[in-house]
């Protein structure tokens, strides 16, 4: 864990604050690549993941931007109460959403606060003189964090703003944007879960190969999970042979925790990938949005915080 201090708090737009975190002793923080995030350990004990929203201008600082979510489970609301001088701890940067190597054109699509991991991507692509375009979807400029800065950025000519509540702008024509580059580009999308799923669906229909479609969810989609009837099953620990019953109203993680089997868990909704665990045998019932469709089909990993089992026993590589 890395101790940091809140060095600045800036309101970007209504409901979005940018937090500047500085190392406690002024030393350099670990380097990171575009698309990376950190685990932020809040004073209450909550742990939340936030994208690093700007490449480091000075090595001792990180920046994150956080939307105060009306449906917040407490994390974003607590971030919005932080003040300059508050002490926190963070993890080293992790990256499940990196820029791909190579010279393919990049299509960046942000929905609202999903702009945060795409900002360092745009900075990196511009710095390395790689071809890209950046589409930013929001209700209006007043709700689009960083929009004024992006209009003046070194890559302003690559920016395309789509404001659904502004006359003459309107929603992005997804089919047009995606059909222009389905054969020669990498697609990166981040934003609300349902926004991402709409983009992914259109990309699939237009023939984008899954390996060239990259996404990062901040929250799970609004699925009718409550309507799914859960069945009990057993989970087996490969290293010890122990077998535990997972009730219809329990998660794998809860059962493991109750029986003294440690598993790092953060989001508890299958978004962040923290609890990703190998599967030795059995068929997972995937409920996460972290793994791709191909990875779901392969069944080599499972997210115990939210997923279940289609087989009577699911043996985990623990």
UniProtKB/TrEMBL annotation:
Pfam (any one):
Fer2
Q: State whether keyword Cell wall biogenesis/degradation applies.
A: no
Q: Which Gene3D superfamilies match?
A: 3.10.20.30, Nucleotide-binding domain of ferredoxin-NADP reductase (FNR) module, Translation factors
Identify the SUPFAM superfamilies for this entry: 2Fe-2S ferredoxin-like, Ferredoxin reductase-like, C-terminal NADP-linked domain, Riboflavin synthase domain-like
> Which residue range or ranges hold the 2Fe-2S ferredoxin-type domain?
233-318
Note the PROSITE patterns from the entry. 2FE2S_FER_1, 2FE2S_FER_2, FAD_FR
Residues annotated as transmembrane = none
Where does the signal peptide begin and end? none
Q: Where is the FAD-binding FR-type domain?
A: 1-100
Keywords, sorted A to Z: 2Fe-2S, Flavoprotein, Iron, Iron-sulfur, Metal-binding, Oxidoreductase
Protein name per the record: Ferredoxin:oxidoreductase FAD/NAD(P)-binding subunit
């Amino acid at each position: 864990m890395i101790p940091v201090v809140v060095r600045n708090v800036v309101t970007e737009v209504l409901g979005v604050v940018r937090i500047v975190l500085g190392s406690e002793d002024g030393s350099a923080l670990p380097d990171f690549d575009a698309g990376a995030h950190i685990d932020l350990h809040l004073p209450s004990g909550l742990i939340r993941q936030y994208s690093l929203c700007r490449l480091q201008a000075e090595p001792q600082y990180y920046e994150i931007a956080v939307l105060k979510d009306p449906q917040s489970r407490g994390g974003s609301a607590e971030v919005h109460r932080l003040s300059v001088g508050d002490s926190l701890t963070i993890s080293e940067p992790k990256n499940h959403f990196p820029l791909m190597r190579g010279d393919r054109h990049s299509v960046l699509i942000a929905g609202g606060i999903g702009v945060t991991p795409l900002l360092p991507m745009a900075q990196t692509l511009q710095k390395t003189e790689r071809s890209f375009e950046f589409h930013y979807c929001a209700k209006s400029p007043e709700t689009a964090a960083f929009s004024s800065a992006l209009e003046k950025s070194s890559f302003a000519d690559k920016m395309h703003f789509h404001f659904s509540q502004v006359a003459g702008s309107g929603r992005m024509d997804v089919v047009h944007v995606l059909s222009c580059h389905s054969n020669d580009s990498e697609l990166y999308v981040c934003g609300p879960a349902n926004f991402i799923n709409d983009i992914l669906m259109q990309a699939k229909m237009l023939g984008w190969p899954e390996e060239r479609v990259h996404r990062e969810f901040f929250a799970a989609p609004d699925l009718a999970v409550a309507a799914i009837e859960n069945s009990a099953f057993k989970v087996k620990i490969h290293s010890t042979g122990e077998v535990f019953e997972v009730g219809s109203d329990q998660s794998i993680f809860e059962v493991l925790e109750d029986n003294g089997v440690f598993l790092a868990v953060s989001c508890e909704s299958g978004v962040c990938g923290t609890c990703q665990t190998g599967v030795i045998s059995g068929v997972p019932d995937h409920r996460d949005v972290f793994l791709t469709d191909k990875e779901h089909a392969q069944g080599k990993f499972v997210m115990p915080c939210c997923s279940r089992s289609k087989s009577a026993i699911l043996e985990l590589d623990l």
